[in-house]
Design brief:
The complex is a heterodimer. Chain A is α+β, with helices and mostly antiparallel strands. Chain A is 34% helix and 25% strand. The longest helix of chain A has 23 residues. In chain B, a hairpin with a 2-residue loop joins strand 5 and strand 6. The longest helix of chain B has 18 residues. Classes of the chains: A alpha+beta, B mainly beta. Chains A and B meet through helix 1, strand 9, helix 6 and helix 7 of A and strand 12, strand 15, strand 16 and strand 17 of B.
Chain lengths: 274, 269
């Protein structure tokens, strides 16, 4: 099922004001309702290699997987949609590719990347994430953070050691507790949420949310929601105006209309004719 | 970068930057800091530096290591701590000392903290807390957390972004640095039902126009105010000229036409 008519996608990525190159990577496959954002880590150009591998492997492998199975098909064993399994498998493939490259080539040793993957299907969004890149959602004027960072800071907030306000001034914002390509195995956090027409989803690297307050990000997405490419550019610009100390990347996805899965024979035929 | 200032009888002998992860102190020549004095053991002590934190450990020296008058086995060095080795004094000047003109650590770089490193850190914290040594458990915890970060780095589990943060940038500043002082802009409507009405542009973004017909956004940036077309078939007109797709800078007393309404942009002193 082609989702190009149901979703509008815009993205922007920028090295920022301080760094010489961009280690972030963004990719989208509008027809399959798939968007991927990765923020690479590692010396020389290894960060770019890791994030580039993550987005490329996941998008191409997911295309392959979706040509064989539909995300809303039910798994005979669990009677759950296969989407989660498909996404997890592709994330693990990307992990293996990056890990093996890092092991076999000394210049890539220790490289890794954060990851946010969103697969839109059947009026839902499946989110897989690792590290401190985030997904936000704007719905009915309220802008909320959907993912919870895998970072030392977040763990400290969760355990009540520090408050969210103290966290803004903490020194170790940069320590992530999960990442892609660092270990032979990885456990992406997977969640599923129902979507509604009018929702706007924002995937971003920490270069945005470290530089711009959530409130201002939400305002930009809401006021410029009518023009997604402009909103994406505006978010990058806001991060850069505030110092742009890190690479900054955003992907915006607007749900234009319902996109229920065409399950029955007739429905499938109808969807095909549309 | 932290450093040590070696002195004897109040006379500064040299400054030693702590560039290495392990800086050894002792009488024998293979030490990083050699102090040729019989009161100093061959391998006297070691300073382990991880990120911004330095730890001093006595290596079972004959005469012991004294910090700020207290004998120590292990010590988390704080700014201006004085290490005494016989007649020699080593003053520790930490990262934060402005006099050091030190380069700030790159807190922007993202690093992975591995669970194994975390466990090691927890054990370390317990060991240090148990050891006591005149040091509170809290500082041991903090030290261990920092060591965890460093241990992760050492284990190549950490990948860092190689570009450096600027030395001037505050290491852990809140998201938005204060906006530089800039005159406040405002819009006064010149035509339409609300002619004469004034709107101050205090927010970073202000949208104008009619949704679905024609909308523009005025952005407040450090460089000044800009107008950008958001939606609608026609773009806004500034001083009689239709603007392009890119943001257009606004000057004092520019006249904007949008969705059939004329308005003037001006700067308040």
């Amino acid at each position: 099922m082609d989702l190009t008519q149901a979703l509008e996608i815009a993205s922007a990525t920028d090295p920022g004001m301080v760094r010489s190159h961009n280690e972030d990577s963004v990719a989208a496959d509008p027809a399959n309702g798939l968007v991927v954002l990765a923020d690479g880590m590692g010396g020389y150009n290894a960060g770019e290699v890791a994030s580039g591998m993550a987005t490329t492997v996941i998008v191409t492998e997911m295309q392959q997987a979706l040509s064989r199975a539909r995300p809303y098909d039910l798994d005979p064993k669990t009677s759950q949609p296969v989407a989660a399994r498909l996404v997890r498998e592709q994330v693990l493939k990307a992990n293996t590719s990056i890990y093996q490259a890092a092991q076999s080539q000394p210049q890539y040793a220790g490289m890794g990347t954060t990851l946010v993957v969103c697969l839109f299907y059947d009026n839902r969004v499946l989110v897989a994430h690792l590290g401190d890149s985030r997904l936000y959602r704007l719905r009915d004027g309220s802008f909320t953070q959907v993912t919870r960072d895998h970072s030392l800071l977040q763990e400290q907030i969760d355990s009540g050691l520090i408050t969210a306000e103290q966290a803004k001034h903490a020194q170790h914002k940069n320590l992530v507790t999960r990442a892609l390509g660092i270990d032979p195995s990885v456990d992406p956090e997977m969640r599923e949420y129902p979507t509604r027409p009018g929702d706007i989803y924002l995937l971003c690297s920490d270069g945005l949310n470290d530089m711009v307050e959530d409130e201002d990000i939400g305002m930009a997405v809401e006021t410029l929601g009518a023009n997604l490419p402009l909103a994406a550019q505006q978010l990058v610009q806001m991060a850069n105006d505030n110092g742009g100390r890190d690479n900054v990347s955003v992907i915006l996805v607007r749900v234009l209309r319902e996109y229920p899965a065409a399950r029955g024979m007739m429905a499938r035929m109808f969807a095909w004719l549309k | 970068m932290a450093k040590l200032i070696l002195s004897m009888d109040g006379l500064v002998l040299k400054e030693i930057p702590l560039t290495k992860e392990r800086t050894t102190i002792g009488r024998k020549p293979h030490n990083d800091i050699q102090i040729d004095n019989l009161a100093v053991s061959g391998e006297h002590a070691v300073i382990v530096t991880i990120l911004n934190d330095s730890f001093l450990e006595d290596l079972g020296s004959t005469n012991g290591t004294v910090v700020n008058g207290n004998p120590i086995k292990k010590h988390f060095l704080q700014n201006n701590d004085v290490i005494e080795l016989g007649k020699y004094k080593l003053k520790f000047v930490g990262e934060a000392a402005p006099a050091a003109g030190a380069e700030k650590a790159d807190f922007e770089k993202t690093m992975v903290l591995r669970p194994s490193a975390m466990r090691a850190a927890a054990e370390q914290a317990r060991a240090m807390a148990a050891a006591g040594g005149g040091q509170g458990a809290a500082s041991a915890q903090r030290a261990a957390a920092a060591q965890a970060a460093g241990a992760g780095a050492a284990a190549a589990g950490v990948a860092d972004k190689d570009a450096k943060a600027p030395a001037a940038a505050p290491a852990a500043a809140p998201a938005a640095p204060p906006r530089p002082a800039q005159p406040l802009g405002a819009i006064q409507l010149l035509s339409g039902a609300n002619a004469g009405k004034e709107l101050e542009l205090t927010k970073p973004l202000t949208t104008l126009g009619k949704p679905g017909v024609q909308v523009a956004v005025l952005t407040r940036r450090p460089q000044g105010y800009f107008i950008t077309h958001v939606e609608g078939a026609n773009r806004p007109v500034v001083n009689g000229q239709q603007i392009g797709a890119a943001p257009t800078a606004l000057k004092d007393h520019d006249v904007i036409e949008l969705a059939g309404v004329k308005m003037e942009f001006f700067l308040k002193g």
